[in-house]
TrEMBL record:
Homology family: Belongs to the heat shock protein 70 family.
Lineage of source species: Eukaryota, Metazoa, Ecdysozoa, Arthropoda, Hexapoda
Chain intervals with Basic and acidic residues compositional bias: 587-598, 607-619, 629-659, 908-943, 963-974
GO process annotations (BP): endoplasmic reticulum unfolded protein response
Major localization listed first in the record, in broad terms: endoplasmic reticulum
Keyword Nucleotide-binding attributed: yes
InterPro entries registered for this protein in UniProt: ATPase_NBD (IPR043129), Heat_shock_70_CS (IPR018181), HSP70_C_sf (IPR029048), HSP70_peptide-bd_sf (IPR029047), Hsp_70_fam (IPR013126)
Protein's name in the database: Hypoxia up-regulated protein 1
Ranges for region Disordered: 581-666, 899-974
Subcellular location: Endoplasmic reticulum lumen
Length: 974
């Protein structure tokens, strides 16, 4: 309370401090309104969550065990569900109820080779087919869960960790995916995120996220010369390698220079990883146990024993990475028989000998795809948990002939790169620009039928997005010969060169079937004498998540406008054509330069003769064709036409002036070409695994909502039970302490002890299965009995501090009163701030407060601690408030007081001087002012007084990283 009093007695300083404090609160409150975002590295074995919130740097969110990574495992048992380590623990006892390594099952039909491999590795799961979508469904008793539902629940857990870490609601995220994920896997993951109520800002490939993380901390080392790095990853499920380049590049739109990381080549092996090694070690341990003959039961027929062996194999694999030998030991493996076996690193490496032969293949594939040799690669950087295995490093080191770079956090690099990207994409953040350009792994082509010279229909293939093409990207394909409704197919292309014998892992080769309608109708209504069709253009998009889509289909027309037609054209028609030019076609806001396929349908003598030329990326159509405008702004076209007309007009005028003849009037006028576009209705039918949508999505959302309600009810019940048990134990302990017991009567102590004893017996007998409401009701009943005693104890503990605060306020008020007596008319006529009545009122208030305090304290001390309190803390604070108001009134009056302005008396006139002045006035006609002048307060004093009145508010920058002069207080710069 002393601080509070000082603020009142020193008005200027106190006011300034208060305003600065309020400014800080207001600024940080506005920053807090910005939403935080997260990234999720949803690996096969572990899940990492990155978060960034306004004013807080990027960081990894901790789980409930305060660990930085969480097992991607979910388990169900008796209506409950658990995640992470709890799910792994439950999975040892009930392996068929605990699900892990789920990510690679996304977007797979039941007959996919990867599903067959999963069943082989984990034979105790009950996997059935979704009757509607033919996808994977896990069955647990009578309950069934689609793969999207299981992944969505893991994402919900990640979201809860992020929200606990930031203290804010999370609605947006960037998700990390393997680079070899196709369209089915990517759209399935987006559907799972929607089930988890998350908006996916982008799906980013794991090697791209790592490369971004590597680059943002080495920004100063990047220059105009390209630097090449190879990132090698071996995780639990797969192995991949990517060649990337770092280089400074100038943005053509903004003319700003930014660092760019571009993926140049990728290689992968989707079944080579730590999981395969762990499974082999598990099977080896199982065979060795069977050889021991401790039981007649085959260990491979017992799911629980297999789960124990799998867990021990994982531990043993990690230990052998740092030790040459170690014992595998499991208590009660099967039929209560223990298992113990010494395993050497040499034995383990022998089990995986054929896997080691595949280690360098992804690296070689990445180099081949990039077209670079190993000698131009600056470094080979490792990430992924299994790159820590010494054997892996030895193989890679000997293959590349140079040391490996290990200066990267192998577990968290991808997650941190993705959260940087999330901050870049989300609103409310300002980050240093770092452009990423990913590469297409699986080429996409358009397949359609057209009539040849002989009249027979033949199939034509045109590549839209070729292998290693950068994306995001837009492409356009033009159909010139079709005059009626037709359809075409979008497919994967050239998979044999990428996947070889594993093309089945990608699922359906067909991606979509597109049907166009009203083609003949549009042509008939649009084509006229001066209007020519330039074909039907289909616009395709491969967004930054690597997801393919058809943007729109349109009929492109060219209208020839002569001078006469142009003169006849009304003003409104001209405005309409201008608007059409401005807003037709692709948006100019593109992630990079748009290139068009420009696939023209023309009669060819041989299919292959022109296919290569037509399919060439970036090929532009001639300007006269008028249908190749996606890389130019339509405003530029309109201005170009205007300039051309102006030049023609100027030329004609000049010619007429020079010749002076009438023939100039009949000079030939070059017609103007206007491009028109008509939308063609299109229907897209996906032919790969259909995304979870419509009624199926709603049904899944309801199932997850029901699970959430069960979890919330369970948490509420646990919280209520813990609160009741804690209060009972706490009450019994406190009544044994003298300071609490002295505040209660014997009857109150007996009542509280009795109620605690009754509740304790009830909790361990009939109350074990009670619901949350029952626990909360009993807690309130017990509190109503015990809170009276606790309240008395609190009053006796807090009263001395309150009295001490009152004493300080009285002392301060008395000091102020002594100074105030010197500011009255009787004591100081020049500074009569206060009246005698005001001084007397304050003096009376102080005197009454002192008398009240002394009386009440004396009466309270006569009372025992266990009787109702007479002098409460509230009474003391009320008295302090009354005295504070009296002092504050006088303080404010002192701040507003100003000295009275006194008039300056006129100088006494002298007779001789007056006479001379009069004569002078008569001679010159001028008159000297002799009126009295009021004395003015000096300007400097006024300024000083104003500055004292208006305390300066300090500008507080909410973010430590914001540069001076930058705008946008709601942005956080990373």
């Amino acid at each position: 309370m002393g601080t509070r009093h000082r603020l009142h007695t020193d008005g200027e300083t106190g006011g300034r401090a208060l305003l600065v404090t309020l400014s800080v609160v207001a600024l940080f409150a506005s920053v807090a309104n910005s939403a935080a975002v997260m990234s999720v590295d949803l690996g096969s074995e572990w899940m990492k969550v990155g978060v960034v919130s306004p004013g807080v740097p990027m960081e990894i969110a901790l789980n409930k065990e305060s660990k930085r990574k969480t097992p991607t495992t979910i388990a169900f048992r008796n209506g409950d569900r658990v995640f992470g380590e709890d799910a792994q623990t439950l999975g040892v006892r009930f392996p068929s109820n605990s699900f892990g390594y789920l990510v690679d099952l996304l977007g797979k039909t039941i007959d996919n080779p990867m599903v067959d491999l999963y069943r082989k590795r984990f034979p105790y799961y009950d996997i059935v087919e979704d009757p509607a979508r033919k996808t994977v469904v896990f069955r647990v008793g009578e309950d069934q869960y689609t793969i999207e539902e299981l992944i969505a629940q893991l994402l919900q857990v990640a979201k809860s960790y992020a929200e606990d870490s930031t203290g804010q609601l999370i609605t947006e995220c960037v998700l990390i995916v393997p680079g070899f994920f196709g369209q089915a896997e990517r759209t399935a993951l987006v559907s799972a995120a929607r089930l988890a109520n998350l908006k996916v800002l982008q799906l980013i490939n794991d090697y791209t996220a790592v490369a971004l993380n590597y680059g943002i901390f080495r920004r100063k080392e990047i220059n105009e010369t390209a630097q090449y790095f190879l990132f090698y990853d071996m995780g639990a499920y797969k192995t991949s390698a990517a060649v990337v380049s770092y280089q400074l590049a100038k943005d053509k739109a903004t003319r700003e220079t930014h660092p760019v990381v571009q993926v140049l080549g990728v290689g992968f092996d989707r079944t080579l990883g730590g999981l395969e090694m762990q499974v082999r070690l598990r099977d080896y341990l199982g065979k060795e146990f069977n050889k021991m003959g401790k039981t007649k039961t085959d260990v491979f027929s017992n799911p629980r024993a297999m789960a124990k062996l799998f867990k021990e194999a994982g531990r043993l694999k990690n230990v052998l990475s740092a030790n040459t030998e170690h014992y595998a030991q499991i208590e009660g493996l099967l039929d209560e028989q223990d298992f113990r076996l010494l395993v050497t690193r040499e034995q383990f490496e022998g089990l995986c000998k054929d896997l080691y032969d595949r280690v360098t293949a992804p690296l070689d594939k990445a180099l081949a795809a990039s077209g670079l040799a190993m000698d131009v690669i600056n470094q080979v950087v490792l990430f992924g948990g299994n790159t820590r295995v010494p054997k892996m490093q030895d193989i890679l080191r000997s293959h590349i002939g140079q040391e490996l770079a290990k200066n990267l956090n192998a577990d968290e690099a991808a997650c941190m790169g993705a959260v940087y990207r999330a901050a870049d994409l989300a609103t409310g953040f300002k980050v240093k620009k770092f452009i990423t350009k990913d590469a297409v792994l699986f080429p996409i082509q358009v397949v359609f039928d057209r009539e040849g010279e002989s009249g027979a229909m033949r199939q034509v293939r045109r590549t839209l997005f070729g292998a290693m093409n950068s994306y995001p990207q837009k492409k356009v394909i033009t159909f010139n010969k079709h005059t009626d409704d037709f359809e075409f197919t979008v497919q994967y292309a050239e998979l044999e060169s990428v996947l070889k014998d594993d093309t089945g892992t990608l699922g359906s080769i067909d991606l979509a079937r597109v049907k166009l309608s009203e083609v003949a109708k549009k042509l008939k209504s649009s084509v006229a004498e001066n209007v020519e069709s330039k074909g039907i253009k289909a616009h395709f998009m491969l967004d930054d998540s690597g997801i393919f889509s058809l943007a729109n289909v349109e009929l492109v027309l060219e209208k020839t406008v002569t001078k006469e037609d142009d003169e006849d054209e009304s003003t409104f028609q001209k405005i309409g054509n201008t608007i059409s030019k401005l807003f037709s076609g692709d948006s100019t806001d593109k992630p990079e330069k748009v290139t068009e396929g420009a696939e023209k349908e023309e009669d060819e003598s041989a299919d292959g003769a022109k296919e290569g030329k037509d399919a060439k990326d970036g090929e532009q159509e001639p300007a006269s064709a008028g249908d190749k405008q996606s890389t130019k702004d339509k405003d530029a076209d309109a201005s170009a036409d205007t300039k051309a007309d102006s030049k023609e007009g100027a030329g004609e005028a000049g010619k007429k002036t020079e010749d002076g003849s009438a023939e100039a009037k009949n000079a030939t006028v070059k017609p103007k070409i206007v491009t028109l576009k008509e939308t063609i209705p299109s229907k897209v039918e996906l032919t790969y695994v259909a995304p979870l949508d419509g009624d199926l999505f709603e049904a899944s959302a309801k199932r997850l909502s029901a699970l959430d309600e069960i979890d919330n009810a369970k948490k509420r019940r646990e919280t209520a039970l813990n609160a009741l048990e804690s209060f009972v134990i706490d009450a019994q302990v406190k009544l044994d302490e003298k300071e609490y017991a002295s505040c209660a009567t014997e009857d109150e102590i007996a009542t509280i002890r009795k109620r605690c004893s009754e509740i304790s017996e009830w909790l361990y007998e009939d109350g074990t299965d009670a619901d949350a409401v029952t626990y909360e009701t009993k807690l309130e009943e017990l509190r109503s009995v015990a809170n009276e005693v606790y309240a008395r104890h609190w009053e006796h503990e807090e009263r001395p501090q309150a009295l001490n605060a009152l004493k300080q306020m009285i002392n301060g008020s008395e000091g102020f009163l002594r100074n105030a007596r010197n500011l009255t008319k009787d004591a100081n006529p020049e500074k009569d701030v206060f009246t005698a009545v005001e001084i007397e009122t304050l003096e009376k208030a102080i005197r009454n407060t002192i008398e009240w305090r002394d009386t009440e304290v004396a009466e309270q001390e006569k009372l025992a601690r266990n009787v109702p309190v007479r002098l409460t803390v509230k009474d003391i604070t009320d008295r302090m408030g009354m005295l504070d108001r009296e002092v504050k009134y006088l303080v404010n009056k002192l701040k507003l007081w100003r000295p009275k302005v006194k008039p300056t008396p006129p100088p006494k006139p002298e007779k001789t001087a007056d006479k001379k002045e009069g004569e002078k006035e008569e001679a010159t006609g001028e008159k000297k002012p002799d009126e009295p002048v009021l004395e003015q307060t000096p300007e400097k004093d006024a300024t000083t007084e104003t500055e004292a009145e208006e305390p300066t508010v300090e500008d507080i920058d909410p973010t430590a990283t914001r540069n001076d002069g930058e705008e946008g207080g709601d942005h956080t710069e990373l």
